[in-house]
Amino acid sequence: MNILAIGAHPDDLEMMCGGTLPKYAAAGNKVFMVHVSTGNVGHMVIQPDELIRIRGKEAQEAGALIGAEVISLGESDLFVRADDMKTRDKVIDLIRYARPDVIITHSPKDYMDDHEQTSELVYEASMAATVPHHKTQHPFYGRLTPIYYMEAVAGIGPMPEELVDITDFIEIKLEMLGKHVSQHKWLKEHDNMDVIDMARTISKARGYQADVGYAEGFFMCRQYHKLATRRWLP
């Protein structure tokens, strides 16, 4: 299978589905890790142009740990817009390129607009990618792909509908997240977040709920053509 995971910023996927993606990869699936924005303003000191280079390198190093293909769509932090047709076409073409069996992205309700706009972008693009007469670089992809939403940051929101046991992959999740060195101090200063501790703690809490060591939570997109008669999560 092809697994397409699309986050707003370079470290979002590692934080919220960084145990599920290596579980997919370990089973022989092709994993694409995509960030819509470059993460160019996520620091107190490092300037945007240099930060783009640093965060791109961090993302590549994290993805390499599981053999994922890492792609940046090159948008700017705080300006991710679902109604920007140029950005939407980037996501449409991405879906056509990856030809996914399942898509993972942000919750439609999360703590910041980049996340929510990315969620809407993915939803709209997944349908548009199937339309032959809308042209992008890659040919149309005729499959209406199931979408799974990651739960919101810090697990704030309703109880996830589905849980993935990541007990055997918690350490690789934290190792992947640890590659995003530029973010550790920034997130602590700006968001009062120890990102490694939070990722472990939320995964542990979901693990208790599922009677396993660690788990990650998801919601299926429950719209016409997005429902599935089988479980696509690992």
Structure description:
By secondary structure, the protein is of the alpha/beta class. It has one domain (2-220): LmbE-like (Rossmann fold, 3-Layer(aba) Sandwich). The protein has eight helices and seven strands.
What attributes characterize this protein structure?
single chain, 234 residues, alpha/beta, Rossmann fold, 7-stranded mixed β-sheet, 8 helices, 7 strands, 41% helix
List the helices and strands and how they pair.
Elements: E1 2-7, H1 12-17, H2 20-26, E2 30-37, H3 48-64, E3 69-75, H4 85-98, E4 102-105, H5 113-128, E5 147-150, E6 162-165, H6 170-178, H7 181-191, H8 195-210, E7 215-220
Parallel strand pairs: 1-2, 1-4, 2-3, 4-5
Antiparallel strand pairs: 5-7, 6-7
Helix content: 40-55%
Major β-sheet, in short? 7 strands, mixed
- What sort of overall outline do the alpha carbons produce when their principal axes are compared? globular
Order of helices and strands: EHHEHEHEHEEHHHE
Radius of gyration over C-alpha positions, nearest whole angstrom: 17 Å
Q: Averaging pLDDT over every residue, what do you get?
A: 95
Oligomer designation: single chain
CATH class: Alpha Beta
| Low-pLDDT regions | none
What share of residues are in beta strands? 15-25%
Task: Tally the beta strands.
Answer: 7
> Ends: how far apart?
11 Å
- Looking across the biggest beta sheet, what order are the strands in? 3-2-1-4-5-7-6
User: What's the helix count?
Assistant: 8
Broad structural category: alpha/beta
